[in-house]
Amino acid sequence: MSGSLIGLVDRMTSVSRIALLLLGLLVLNACSSNRLEMLGASVSGYNHTPAAINWFSVNGAGGPNMGPFQGGLNSQVCCTVIPAVWSPGLRAVVKWEKDPFPRETIQRDQYGQIDLEAYRLHAAKYSTHEAVVEIPQYTDNMCAVQVHFLACDQVKISTTCYTSEHPNYPDHAYFQKKESTTCSAI
């Protein structure tokens, strides 16, 4: 088969070869010009719930665990990847594991080691979640992807450079919400 391909190339005129070469270059150029410029952004989390977040990820980039009502800059890790230029409809996939009973006592043996069967029973209560979350508009000086875990397994993302203590922090309302006792099916 390769012999017939070589014969075909030998029979091609120089004009055909040039046309084929130009077509290949155009295809390569089109592919490279559509490539998005991406930037690395650190990831931090805020847990606004009484559950523990054992782990979370944003577009596959891991975040740390957080106890109930914990998080902030001390939960910052590196990095997820997002487009350098924001566009409407930009979203991220957030995945996480939740421990609804983080203060539950787990039996230990005489040496203080966690009993494996007791831990297995506790861990069976963990739940995993996934949400596609809108990324709010950001500019060239986007500092971090901040994930807010809210009541009823809701998740919001912020991209501000301000810390939660700053008066211009856009998400102060998340810190005012109380855990709901009932969650409606969405």
Write a structural description.
It is a single chain. This protein is α+β, with helices and mostly antiparallel strands and 186 residues long. The chain has 2 domains: 2-33; 38-176. Helix content is 23%, strand content 33%. The chain is built from 4 helices and 8 strands. It has helices at 2-11, 14-33, 116-123, 172-176; strands at residues 38-47, 52-58, 61-63, 71-83, 91-99, 127-134, 144-150, 154-158. The chain has a 4-stranded mixed beta sheet with strand order 4-1-7-8, with no helix packed on it. Strand 2 and strand 3 form a beta hairpin. The termini are far apart.
CA-atom Rg in angstroms: 25 Å
**Residue fraction in strands:** 25-35%
Number of domains: 2
Largest sheet: 4 strands, mixed
Q: What is the general shape?
A: elongated
Strand order of the largest sheet: 4-1-7-8
Terminal Cα span:
59 Å
Number of helices: 4
Helix content: 10-25%
Write down the overall mean pLDDT.
78
Low-confidence stretches: 14-34
- Strand count: 8
User: Structural class, judged by helices and strands?
Assistant: alpha+beta
Order of helices and strands: HHEEEEEHEEEH
